[in-house]
Amino acid sequence: MNKSTQPKTGSQNASKFRPYPIAHSDASGWIGKSSIGFDLYAGGRIFSYIETSYTGMNAAQQHVDSITNNFSTRSLFEVPRGEGVCLPYSFIKDGGSDANRQIGVTYRLVSHPDVTIFFLDEKALTDAPKLTSKQENEFVWGYEYGIGKRIKLHGPMPYRSVKLDGREGIATSATITRDDDSTDYGYLVTVQGDPNAPVDTPNLLLLVERNAKYAKGNPPVSAEELDQMAKDIAASIKRRPTQ
Question: Which Pfam families does the record match to this protein (predicted)?
């Protein structure tokens, strides 16, 4: 295990964290006053997980135990057997028991390091605010991720219908003014989930964003190039059939 991934246990932090037993043989767990997590070495990679105890430490411990008990590695593009959540090089088996599932994954393109891709799968809950796809789109641009200090949507009719995972959603393209007054671009798709559907029908979000300062000597992508990349990515997203 790479010791740099472990919580600090010096005199300053010894009272804040203590070991937490984890069922997975390759994992090392820790617990603090308001958070719990683990570091796991498997398949030549290190995986880390942290959960805050906003729902209570007992619930947090149960969630961490469930994740480690159902965690396995997978090869890139491998489709595991059974229901669950695929993450890069890993799989967490879940037969629908995780009532508050919220999984977000961020990627950066090797050929275009100025482009990041964020995809969110969030279980639709009956007691959550009933936002339409358009309302969620507006909320994300305005408040959700601190994307920039000013957002200008493109086109006279900026909210466009789009398919994501075969479901109807709303797509928008925008010019982003960062806090330092630099300019970037973004493409956002939001899809409203249905908590009453007979099958799991989650809220979906796809945000493809340019950050020109990470272009590393290559010209940053244009607004048109980003839009086309994002549309191709959106078209590729689909739920894999359970094996």
Answer: Tli4_C (PF18426)
